[in-house]
Amino acid sequence: MVLVSHVPGELDALDLVEGYRAGGAADPIVVLGTQSEQEMAVLCYEVGADGYACVNTTTTRNLIWVAARAIQRHQLLCDNQRLNQAERIRLQREHEEAGLLLEQQRALLGDLEALRRGPSCDGAPLTRCETPTSLGLPDALIAHYRELLRTYVIMGSGNLACELKRLAELLVTAGLTARQAMQMHLQVLEELVHGLGARSTRHVMTRADLLVLEVMVHVAEGYRRRYQERVQPAQQRTLPGFE
Question: Does the 2-85 domain belong in CATH 3.40.800.20?
């Protein structure tokens, strides 16, 4: 707690407080002077002081409360600064975690691509393949999935079950593999995460994981149903008496 006397012509407390704040000091400051509070209070607040008291009219009890309010304001400012810094650190960590998860999922697709290609002719071990950024998929499909992901992040799966089922049927009909569907998901998700800026990514990543899991389940079920139809094709049975 700092008390500064203001004596016009001898000690300008306003300049002193302004220089004190410019130097980075954050201690609570109360200015004491002979001028009225109506004349000096606003000027003191403008340069960074936490209060002003006229020594001719104030009482000890009033001065105690002025000092207490100055200390309380200082504590609130410190708490606010600390919370803002903690929030920035948390958001930064969330973005780093999101980037790491996206890299791991990209690496998983690279491993699957390496396994699909098989070992090289000279017997060299499998190496991780870089996931191509260009999917070769229709722009309309990617745009549709982008809007679906954004809606899923906001609403969840409650009202999108039918839409997800239709999307999975479309992917199965087009012959997309699970790896290609995952590639599309990662590309759209990366665009969405990068567009968040300084906002939180945890909710987006959680909902995105649920979306791709639900899509993969529908796609797997669609291919299983196609396989069953090929293994056990439907047979037309004759009517009784026409055998």
Answer: no
